[in-house]
């Protein structure tokens, strides 16, 4: 997902429903709900061209190498030219939102170095995939098979796109049945969907889903935009049993409770690991998304996160010392790297091909190496998290950001 949707002009007659439907239909023809937002205020792309790019030793890049470009986050180092030192090394890479139904994204996966994670006495390379791999089960299995060939360990949690049914040809009764099929495929391929320790690092996948009440910030009412049901394809592409719905917290609670079956394994990982990385597809805190006034679709925060997720990961990390706790997430396609209340939050999305062209986050830095025998202590540059690391959040401010106001003023009418 990524944030914006053209607004719909304030209706002046009984044709408002038709106008809204046409606008939503026109949008879906050209955009996804979560297309990229503009750069934050007072941060021009030229500033990021001038920024010195720090490198993480031993991180990989897909091949063939691409020309350097402006990036949303710091670039990883080029593919290693020399052998990994003889001492055992644990490296953990993270990525989300692969969306390999796009041929360009599947090509990116296939270009990852085949020798990664060979483990020939040199250590272990693991990959954490924070959801939204592919829309169909077959594409999902093909993608995970390629990744499994390249990494000694692969971890996964499901995203919303993974549970869509619209292209499955009636294969599954509902999205829960498809979830079971995806987890079965992971088991067959040797992909981890439960807690496990790699070296000194505990890796804990957390199942989650979003709920509207996650959004607690003031709404922007100066423009009319299509409803969530019209704008968010999940409401149509996913199917649920009658007692589960996106209209309340039922789905979020259901997915959160799926983690209870791993309680004993989580406790074992907590007791045996020096550091812990948890990961989910959805967003655990609203502060990890730009304010509504910055977004082209201000309803976005209602379909991105879960309070239950944040409480659960906080419980897991409760006794970690400084620098020993990290949570990786996905879904919004915003590169992110920041520390909030002593936990580091990272998003490293591949996202859609059009976003990579338009948003300054080329794929050269992915998958992001977040751990190499310990978490790297440096916080890496990412446009939006950099902005909020330096500027206070203003959730009560509903005055549209200049680029959003300009967009609406150009194409739509205000109330």
UniProtKB/TrEMBL annotation:
<dbReference type="Pfam" id="PF00149">
    <property type="entry name" value="Metallophos"/>
</dbReference>
<dbReference type="InterPro" id="IPR029052">
    <property type="entry name" value="Metallo-depent_PP-like"/>
</dbReference>
<feature type="compositionally biased region" description="Low complexity">
    <location>
        <begin position="1"/>
        <end position="26"/>
    </location>
</feature>
<feature type="compositionally biased region" description="Low complexity">
    <location>
        <begin position="35"/>
        <end position="46"/>
    </location>
</feature>
<protein>
    <recommendedName>
        <fullName>Calcineurin-like phosphoesterase domain-containing protein</fullName>
    </recommendedName>
</protein>
<feature type="domain" description="Calcineurin-like phosphoesterase">
    <location>
        <begin position="91"/>
        <end position="333"/>
    </location>
</feature>
<feature type="compositionally biased region" description="Basic residues">
    <location>
        <begin position="47"/>
        <end position="56"/>
    </location>
</feature>
<dbReference type="GO" id="GO:0016787">
    <property type="term" value="F:hydrolase activity"/>
</dbReference>
<dbReference type="InterPro" id="IPR052963">
    <property type="entry name" value="Pantetheine_PDE"/>
</dbReference>
<feature type="region of interest" description="Disordered">
    <location>
        <begin position="1"/>
        <end position="62"/>
    </location>
</feature>
<dbReference type="InterPro" id="IPR004843">
    <property type="entry name" value="Calcineurin-like_PHP"/>
</dbReference>
